[in-house]
Amino acid sequence: MNVPLIKQPSAFIPLAMSLAALSMVLGHAAIFGIVHESDKGTAAHIFQLLKLKIASFYVHFFILRPL
């Protein structure tokens, strides 16, 4: 059964969020360099929120999903 990917958001949303987190880390390293900061800043807080949402997708769709 071929269901279009757009009708299955659980298929592409975690992947898109993971790519967003990766691009955020690489973009921050490219612009500001890799330095130790005492205050992590806004980019780190957004990254942590993305990680939390990605983890919740995995818990919902792979662990709590009925067999």
Written account of the structure:
The chain is mostly helical. The chain has one domain. Helices cover 69% and strands 0% of the residues. It is built from two helices and no strands. Helix 1 packs antiparallel against helix 2. The longest helix is centred in the first third of the chain and has 24 residues. It is elongated and about 50 Å long. The model has no long low-confidence stretch (mean pLDDT 80).
Q: How many beta strands in the DSSP annotation?
A: 0
- Biggest sheet details: none
Dominant shape: elongated
Mean pLDDT: 80
Strand content: under 5%
How many helices in DSSP terms?
Answer: 2
**What is the distance, rounded to the nearest whole angstrom, between the alpha carbons of the first and last residues?**
19 Å
The residue fraction in helices comes out at 55-70%
Uncertain stretches of 5 or more adjacent residues: none
- What would you call the structural class? mainly alpha
Radius of gyration, whole Å = 16 Å
Provide the domain count: 1
Describe the secondary-structure layout:
Elements lengths: L8 H24 L9 H22 L4
Name the descriptors.
about 70% helix, elongated, single chain
Quick synopsis:
With 67 residues, the chain is mainly α. Helices cover 69% and strands 0% of the residues.
